[in-house]
Amino acid sequence: MTPTDLDEPLAEPVEAVETSVVNPAVPATTLPAIVAAPVAPSRLRTLSGMSRSDYMNLGGALISSLSITLLLFGILAPLSGSLGFVIVAWVMFLLVYALLVSLDETRPVTVDKVMSAVLFSAALVAGIALFTVIIFTLWKGRQALFRANLYTQDMSSAGPTDPLSVGGIGHAIVGTLIILGIAIAITVPLGLSTAVFLNEIDNRFSRFVRTVVDAMTALPSILAGLFIFATWILILGFERSGLAAAIAVSIMMLPIIIRSADVVLRLVPGNLKEASYALGAPQHRTVRNVTLPTARSGLATAVILGIARGIGETAPVLLTAGYTATLNVDPLHNSMVSLSLATYYFVKSPQQALIQRGFATAAVLMVLVLVLFAIARLLGGRQAGQLSNRQAKRVRARSRRDVARFDSLHQPPLDFGFDLPPPPPDPLFVGPRP
User: What confidence score (pLDDT) does residue 195 get?
Assistant: First the structure.
């Protein structure tokens, strides 16, 4: 193109040619017009709390069930008895309550509310039973509970006809603490170690151990006492003592702790252990620093269940330690009595004073169990990652030592006043020498 060509006027513009080709054989796609229809807002169901209709349904079902039961027991049917009245009234309550709820709610909601009523009734029955046992025991032993001699004296100077102001259960309290302390020292390390073994190792031997533990869970306590009596006392020749009773009680506590701890350890998330392995931690460090701290609260509950099983055992203590009315603090020699065994001996007596002392002994046993449960909950009730004051102090001290060590690594080199000789040449270096 020459410069003169630039002066010439441009030709008329060329119309754009449409490149898209329409095929008449293919029909065109037409999108339908979407019109948003108004939708009524759905009524959300409240998962917690109770509404006014729930209270009305419960009240109506309760009044209706009582009325129907009164008609059945008084007029329409020849029924009698307080237990039958309660059972029939409860069944009628569930039927009427299900009918009232189904009038306003769907079937899943009706089933949910009826099952909630069943579970609440079961919890109420269990709470009433526990409350009744506690109140009955405290009421029957009220005359002996508030006497100081009950906790400081033994029965060596008290006879069957002596009043409550003479004698006590100090020897039974000491014996229970000694026997239970030895049993805890045996079962807690062994039970937790076995639970960790069952949880971490999967082979034929671990499955065999799990089967044995399951079988020991249903072992009668009298068999454990007979086993220790036959082996420890008759075959090995040891005398009846608190140690023999503690070993027999340990046999009863061990399967409870193992099974409960095994279930708790299975609930530890697998990704926590996988993260520990990914960081290079060996199995024993993972168990010690990840698995056990995470399941600490559940392990404390397992120990509590084992203590509850062992502290109330009577037959093993009777067979292996016997009964004594004097205080004995030596677990290796002579007989030793526990609170459960003392309760058994006191209650079976025909004397009213001894019966009252027996109920007071049972009340002390309940308080002792409550104290032990509280101690176990304080020791293991913290959540995973929550440190005690002493543990937090140790962590801060360790952090300060790490900071000081890191600072020492970044300090400038020492000046000795002369130059150090150059390093020897590397024989494997093939590049140019400086």
Answer: 92
